[in-house]
Structures are given as structure tokens and as C-alpha cells.
């Protein structure tokens, strides 16, 4: 599954996970990406869209 929003371009990002003993290891955060059917230029297509774009109404879902 894609980890990239096709509307806003949001993608995963990196950082460090710090344990109680302060050992630092690499980790990633992924956005909440959903595969939805949307209407684009009058056609129904499947897109990978983050939930913040869905909630903001940036995507018109196909019924």
C-alpha cells in the first residue's frame, strides 16, 4: 500500500524512538492513508488519500 497521499502529498517521516534507558533507534511515522473511490474530472477513480483530506472535504467520494 502506498504511504503517500495523492491529494496533499503527505508521506511518512522519520525520527528516533527513545527507550527508558535512553537507547535511540530509528523509527517512522506513517499517515493514515485510505484507498477510496473518488470522482476526478467526472470519472470514478481509486485514490490513496489521507484521512485529514477526507475530513476536510478535499476529495469528492463516488457513490
UniProtKB/TrEMBL annotation:
CC annotations in GO: ribonucleoprotein complex; ribosome
GO molecular function: structural constituent of ribosome
InterPro entries documented for this protein: Bacterial_rp_bL28 (IPR050096), Ribosomal_bL28 (IPR026569), Ribosomal_bL28/bL31-like_sf (IPR034704), Ribosomal_bL28_bact-type (IPR001383), Ribosomal_bL28_sf (IPR037147)
Protein keywords: Ribonucleoprotein, Ribosomal protein
Any one biological process term the GO annotation gives: translation
Keyword Repressor: no
Residues in the signal sequence: none
Protein origin, superkingdom: Bacteria
Any one Pfam family match given in the protein's UniProt record, by short name: Ribosomal_L28
Family the UniProt entry places it in: Belongs to the bacterial ribosomal protein bL28 family.
Protein name as it appears in the record: Large ribosomal subunit protein bL28
Amino acid at each position: 500500500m502506498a504511504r503517500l497521499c495523492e491529494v496533499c502529498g503527505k508521506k511518512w517521516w522519520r525520527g528516533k524512538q527513545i527507550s527508558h534507558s535512553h537507547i535511540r533507534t530509528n523509527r517512522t511515522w506513517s499517515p493514515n492513508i485510505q484507498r477510496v473511490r473518488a470522482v476526478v474530472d467526472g470519472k470514478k477513480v481509486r485514490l490513496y488519500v489521507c484521512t485529514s483530506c477526507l475530513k476536510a472535504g478535499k476529495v469528492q467520494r463516488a457513490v
